[in-house]
Records
---
Amino acid sequence: MERLIQYVLTGLSAGSLYALVALGIVLVYRSTRVLNFAHGDVATFGTFVAFALAMERYPFAVAFPVALVAGSLVAVLFYFAVLVPAQRQGANLLGQVILTLGLALILQGGIVYRWGAEPDRFPFPLSDSRTWKLGPIFVSELSLGTFAAGLVGSALLYLLVQKTRLGLAMRATSENLAAAQTLGIPTRRVLAFAWAVAAALGVVAGVFLASALLLDPFFMLDPFLKAFAAAVLGGLNSLPGAIAGGLILGVAESLTGAYLTIQFKNTLAFVVIIVVLLIRPEGLLGHEFKERV
Amino acid sequence: MDLVETYREDLRFARKRTTWVLLGVLLAALLWLPWVAHPSWLVRLSLIALYAIGVMGQNLLIGYAGLISFGQAGFLAIGAYAFGHLRLLGVPFLLALAGAGAAAGVAGLLVGFPSLRLKGPYLAIATLGFGIAVYQVFANSEVLSGGRSGLAVPKLQPAWGLSHEAYVYYVYLALLLGFTVLTYNLVSSYVGRAFVAIRDSEIAAEVMGVNLTRYKLLAFAISSFYTGVHGGLFAQFLSHLEPQTFNVAESLTLFVAVIVGGLASVEGSIFGATFVILVPTLLSEYRWFVPMLFGFAILMVLIFEPLGLAGRWLKTRLYFQLWPFR
């Protein structure tokens, strides 16, 4: 029983990071209908900015916000400089996916050029080895912090989307772009803001992941793909779905690794994608009409 | 005058005699190459030839049928390992190659089933998941991947007194030629037109009597057959297989090749394969720059020349046909 709780806790901590990344993917998808394949690389970029600042002996309280802003800036820049012109030219879905892939490749190359491909240890105020004992269960400082970050990030996003005027504008824009424009909502700026928020969520997840793993230019690929699986599981256009999907995936992965097979732990996410898409393509909490052939 | 009077005539591969002569000259030059070129160039050209086959397959799926797949590395791995194991069992080269294609084709059918209900982004994700799942199965299963030391594939024995590089080059060139002719025939047949019809409008295609289920599955099966053959040839080329070869980057490279070469174009597939092979070899001093260049290339292609290198090629040809008028 203690083992089970221990594994569930580990899973929740990993899952909250998946949820953060998945929230970014869903936020962008449901507002601009673009699957952002560069999401992981934007997060990597932000994390490397934080890393570079920390190496320059800036305190973490400075490095972290700067990294968030840097990641958001890249996303906004990409939105205005590449995506908007392309959409004006009537780029189709394939075209937009290609554009984000292009951004991903460019960021990857840039990161490898600037910071090299060797893994580094990320200096982080919370430690992995300091643990607390709650009854029979051990909780490390880092995994607790990770879980808290996931919770706080999700809660802030919830407040933003549901309780502010800006959030209302975001919801209106994603619901019906033309109607939102008619009502005087500056949709382009709202969408750019959605990209920025998504990127910032990604960078938060990136910073926490980098301190749990090692930091190298490709460290976000795996979490990014798993977050994709989580987003699909929860429903690609549902924000609560992304959180639920992330947490479920994290716990399921941890339990699979513990009780079934450690080798195929990482494959689970992709099996989940395929099975969900086959059985319920709209995901647990999403709404999208089904295609029948 | 150059009048096209029937549809059949329009579909003809090369209408003018000059085109046939130029093609003949090109082929003769390629056949003559082993006598003048450095062996390293033969190796590069063999690599381009085998990539071109895979890119053609991917182009059939993305460019013609309009189904996005990011799981090519999975089919590639299935083809490569099927080929490797068949070769180790002593199956002759061509038969093993057919086996590799067939194995990947069956996998393609299995992946094709979700494609019946999934559209656009969902399909891209599902195939991406498939590709990575296959990679991880191979990475974690020693029986399939040959364990820690990898799978060694027996080398081709050169015939007719040729050097190994020249022999491989000729074999791969012949296969590329065969697949090019096959693809041209395929895309100008009923099947190819059905693919294009599905890409442009599923409903219209269905109304015109195209069986969506059958042709979507067929698109997946054919494309992954090509990719399986590509995998087999790649296995023979590397003569040593490790699962790490077939990661997401490999899928992306094939995708870049399709986009840069030109969607829905057979010669574009060859251009695209040339691009993704030659650029990294020419820039071997600046490895970090390659992904960036690929990224910029697909952005530029999408914004300025949506038809890719094939579109450029078409415009160049038109320019010379009309010269000195424009």
---
Amino acid sequence: MTETVLSAPSRSSLIWRRVRENPLVAAGGAVAVVIVVVAILAPLLAPYPADAGSATHPLSVLLPPSASHWFGTDQVGRDIFSRVVYGARVSPLIAFFVILISCAVGIPLGLAAGFFGGFIDEAIMRVTDVFLAFPALLLALAFASVLPPSLTSTTLAITIAWWPWYTRLIRGQAASVAARPYVESCRALGISRMRIIFRHILPNAVTPLIVQISLDVGGVILTASALSFLGLGAQDPTPDWGLMVSQGQSYFTTQWWLVTFPGLAILITALGFNMLGDGLRDILDPRRTVRI
Amino acid sequence: MTRYLTQRVLLAIGVVAGVVVLTFLIARIVPGDPAVAWSGPHAPASEIAQVRRQLGLDRPVWVQIGKYFEGVFTGNWGTSIHTHRPVLSDLRKAVPASLELVIAALLIAVAIGVPLGLLSAAKRDRPVDQAVRVGSILGVSMPLFWMALIFQMVFFQKLHVLPVTGEYDPNVAFAHPLRTYTGMPVIDALITGNWPMLESSLSHLIMPAVVVAAYPAGVIARMVRASVLDTLGETHVQMVRALGFSERSVFARFAMKLAWSPVATVIALVFAYSLVNTFLVESIFDWPGLGNYAAASIASLDTPAITGVTLFIAIVYVVANLAVDVTQVLLDPRIKLQ
């Protein structure tokens, strides 16, 4: 370090500098933005928007990639490029809802467990332990297999497997903050519990929460795609990437494009969000180790 | 230490009990009446009532949970609707194949992940580190079912270098019959000295094992990197450095030793995750293991089989976690203080 620091840079400018220096965040963030933009602009980007639905074109079945069909056509003649573009609206949206509901359930429970301690803590955390005793994909699969196959069931099944991670994360944060002397003095001053929770405990948990959410997007997308692949998620004609790979399976020996492009979309999306999350963890929260 | 261990074991037993209750609940969510599903759509009301009594569905829920518990612990895990055999004996038949696949995958994952993680930590923030990090994220971001299909396309269909499905070539098995000891063809061929079968089963194992290895290899590489970098920052490692030891020996003799414990934890955990990942891979490779059984059960809405596999893997997961905790306390007594 040869540079002389005259005045301490602000926290936000420090973070911004580290973002620019971290190629993972930059690349991952770019992919994430592209996915969101594609999802929003799907009707403008897709050359054959009707093919995202139940349209069939018996005369252009299983055409290889060409200038008019960049990714070729599928078993009923639908344009795969259009379906992959519309797919950005399916599993990423599932990820959004799964994480939203998981936070809505997991955060209050974690706050209650960490802040109040004692019996409430024990009761909440022992139930959480049971859910965490299953690998997430397994629990989601078990629930999805007994629910009627649909996007709602997929979302519900994955949420059941996902909320406990947030409870555990927030509980840890809340318990460590609640034990600090300044929270102790807040209590002594007679400040209400709700105020302590919202002004002191929750803001401290925001950083690890952001990291966790960005890491989870990729995980939920992979889980949702796996459920669709096994026939437990989206159903035809929904342009879901996992379902498209599953349907293309029977043709892949001769028509490789049916499987290749939708799978590539899953990989790139999960990779982008995971790079973003991994990089953000480095920048915001360098002490935390890897969670699987 | 004894107190900590007792506490840890009791906690694990409690979690297993909770796991049994949760799988019971999953089995009961099935839309519609299980008695109707059992006796068929056109059964008369009297028969449905009889089936309901037979299945114990007329009793209060807590009695049913009690019965379910009794069954789980006495080895009665129900009968598969799909195979008409007891679920537990189906599982017993499927476990060796999955075990062979997952163990091979973990060996590959360790062989790839550990050196890459060390390299990445040694070259922190250099291009090599960035490349390894992207590679390891690629591993955990891989849709395995897609990777399996792409591998079949490339290595079987285009290059013709690897067989496409199964555990071994049935023609080779016909010419050189394999005696079954462990149920894992590679091991059985090895201990009986059946070389043609060893070659056949190994060549069939490579593709699925590499696919299943993608996820643990990524996780292990990340964990090794994070863990080595963590220990490099610890005071006694700094001390060794201050004493004038070379960077190389600080790295090899001090930092790496301490880094093993979190890595061992992660290997035990990815074992259970990889068992679940076989659900997505085995049916593609027609591998006769748990994953294939689970995928077939899901396709045929075979609830007893699905909950059986779920329960089995959850118990494996809890036991693996417990085993890791116990070994770590035995190896490093400081842990119980945390």
